[in-house]
Amino acid sequence: LAKSHAMAKASPKKTDSIQIYMKELDIYRNYQKSNLHYRSTKHLWAHHKQGHLGKNQVAEIVEKTKAYVGFLQIKLAQDVKKNSFDFKASSLTMVIGYFDFLVTFDPKNQDEYNFFQGESYFSVGKFQLAATKYVGGLKFSDKNPKAIKIKEKLINSLFAVLDEGNFNKVQKQNWQVYAYEYNLKYWPKTP
């Protein structure tokens, strides 16, 4: 595996290195080598930013990345439940980083990825960061008025984190006003 990664980096052909990194995603997922999987994803992200990936390659990377980060997110939540908010900070950083990659690979779904970042922060008790991600997702979802389901998830999670978290009074009030105004904008008549 180390040789394949060295070959990918050394290959003068971008298509060869991209194919190697794509294969590494499967190998590292199967053997749960998270750091190596992350590194390969980061290399593919760099190729994407330079415009070297085709549409089908991007779709495949998005699919594989979503599946893997979902696994890592569940693992993180399980660690927190077992150890009462004791978790590896590097695990959280990796989960958040994967969602940042996904925002670049699949920008039209940024609100969804912000939601999952918020959920990750919420699960480990980082309520301020969770609220920031939920608000970011809500602001992005305003660009698509039809994305009601993700708006509901984001607003409900924002209300939940504001109830759960320990915020300074001014920040909490500002976010509560934002949340209630947003809620009224999309659901003026709630039962």
Task: Please describe the topology of this protein.
Elements: H1 2-10, H2 14-30, H3 34-49, H4 55-83, H5 89-105, H6 110-123, H7 127-141, H8 148-164, H9 169-186
SS summary, helix count: 9
Cα distance, first to last residue? 57 Å
Number of strands: 0
Largest sheet: none
Order of helices and strands: HHHHHHHHH
Unreliable residue stretches:
none
Q: Average pLDDT, to the nearest integer?
A: 90
* Gyration radius, rounded: 19 Å
What is the helical fraction, as a range of percent?
Answer: over 70%
Structural class: mainly alpha
Principal-axes geometry comes out as: globular
Q: Strand fraction band?
A: under 5%
Features:
single chain, 191 residues, mainly alpha, 9 helices
Folded structure, characterized:
This protein is an all-alpha fold. Helix content is 80%, strand content 0%. It contains 9 helices and no strands. It is globular.
Overview in brief:
This protein is an all-alpha fold. It has helices at 2-10, 14-30, 34-49, 55-83, 89-105, 110-123, 127-141, 148-164, 169-186. The N and C termini lie far apart (57 Å).
